Amino acid sequence: MRHVRASTTMRPIGPQAAGPTWSGHDERRDGPAHPTVQMRGITVAFSNGVALDRVDLDLHSGEVHALLGENGAGKSTLIKALLGVYPIEAGEVLVDGEPVRLGGPADARALGIQAAFQESHLVENLSVGENVMLGHEVHGRVGISWRATHERAATMLAELGLAELDPRALLADLTPASRQLVSIARAMVDRPRVLVLDEPTSSLDAVDVAQLFEVIRRLRDQGVAILFVSHFLEQVLALSDRMTILRGGVKEGDYLSHQIGRADVVARMIGKDIAQLQRIGSERRAHRVDPVGPPLYRAAGVGRRGMLRPVDFELHAGEVVGIAGLRGSGRTELARLLAGADRADGGVVTLGGRTVVIDRPADALRKRVALSAEDRGAEGLINDLSVRENIVLALQALRGWAHPLSKAEREDLVERHIEHFDITPVDPATPAGELSGGNQQKVLLARWLAIRPRVLILDEPTRGVDIGAKVDIQAHIAQLALEGVAVVFISSAFDELVRVSDRIVVLKDREKIGELSNGPGVTVDTLVELIAAPDDESDEGDDFPPVWQGGPLLPPAAPSRR
Fold it and tell me: Does the pLDDT of residue 2 top 70, yes or no?
């Protein structure tokens, strides 16, 4: 077994120092005799069961290897086993063909295995350079030489193609995308041979994703083995060379990314055919009826200075209205104004033909207008409360705390919704924070359905959840419409909007620019073209910052290396 000894030597990033690399897909077997890292028969168990059951994983130099699976499939567990965070109950890890022992994260780092974490692992009140070099500061005669430390950080950033990042800039002033790049630069200071990226694009827009992918491809071409985890399948297919799919803690298989289609990936991840998603769209179109009569909910001239220009918006009972737009377009701002989470500067709102005031969430709740916010962690679930307590929260608030639900009512309500949404684990006493992202989202839906809403506003309900949960959530949205609930559906995944919506309202630069009645002629490209079209005229003196004005919604695929 190899001894683990930390190295303090700075090796240059580059093909000359990275060892042999692989320059093609089908020629993989002509590459190095051994993968850089091999995980063989990895089993990890916890008190509530086996999380990984005899899983294999090979990571090769100069390759982006995607790790896919539903929430709960074992991705995070496998990553943490590789990083030395979780002890391995059975199996072995080999580096360059030699067995090694991972007694903790320090062992993994000493072997050249690093992870670039989300910005929560960075320090906002430090500079970019200080974050990059944290723990690797350059020392002079009388302590740390901050000038030399920032110069070393600038060199590292330049090697990654990030010379535009000022090492002396305050991290807190950077965008989420730039912070993610700083996180990668920090990980690369140790010159790792393996870099783990866990959901690095979850909070980025398309342009930022493209820049991040340029950095990842640069590292790949320099011989680093990249382990890439993402829920965004299009990104996985555009970036990765190879993928491993997990399902239920078991390895489903390894695939070359250019030899497998999106539908096959989905089917292997969830053990079901993608036809389920297609069936949802077909059923929505079959049941679609053009609304007649006055709308259930109407907002006329509702807006807020600096947030959203005045918007006219109508919603009929039993209708799903999608809201399309890029990050910064005003999607969330519109949702919050419609639900009273933010107060509008002006405009008139009618509900059921009567003028109403919805200036506070409490107003919305009394009128059965519910908002499931985009950030379910900060504005949705209370992680320390149980699933039971989270589900009954809104209904109890509606009734008033002086009139508590009886134990029988509470248990019946919770049991029905856990079964209806197939929430796992089924124990209602489980803290909500211990659930997977998909199950957390289902708990939020259960909470709002418990009040029997007339209007349900869903802001990114499928973001960050696995494919199986997306199927379930989209099916529930379709069913709610059939039951007469008026649904507002916001999603950055345009294919979801086209699949589920009856009408689609399009926003750009915090302004409504169009509205489409959904039908066979409406596609993702229709929405993209509408958003990317140049403005007819510029609005001078606006107080709205510029946002993305065109370009690919997905980063370009890597040029062929075959």
Answer: no
